[in-house]
């Protein structure tokens, strides 16, 4: 069962995904934001990480309010 099977098709969503990694290359973090279940109202960004996220334990958080992601 995929995530799409669990949620209705009109939901909002924020994704953080570590993409596949090749040894010796940078890690890539991809973010996706969907509004009302549509990629047309969202956006996608890729961030090339300057550190190895598997080298230690890390905690991440999202700062947001009712109007925006900070």
From TrEMBL:
GO molecular function terms listed in the Swiss-Prot or TrEMBL record = hydrolase activity, hydrolyzing O-glycosyl compounds
Q: Which Gene3D superfamilies match?
A: 2.60.120.200
GH16 domain: residues covered: 1-70
**Domain of life assignment:** Eukaryota
One record GO biological process: carbohydrate metabolic process
Keyword terms, alphabetized: Glycosidase, Hydrolase
A Pfam family it matches: Glyco_hydro_16
InterPro entries, per this entry? Beta-glucanase-like, Beta-glucanase/XTH, ConA-like_dom_sf
Q: What is this protein called?
A: Putative xyloglucan endotransglucosylase/hydrolase protein 33
Source organism (scientific name): Cocos nucifera (Coconut palm)
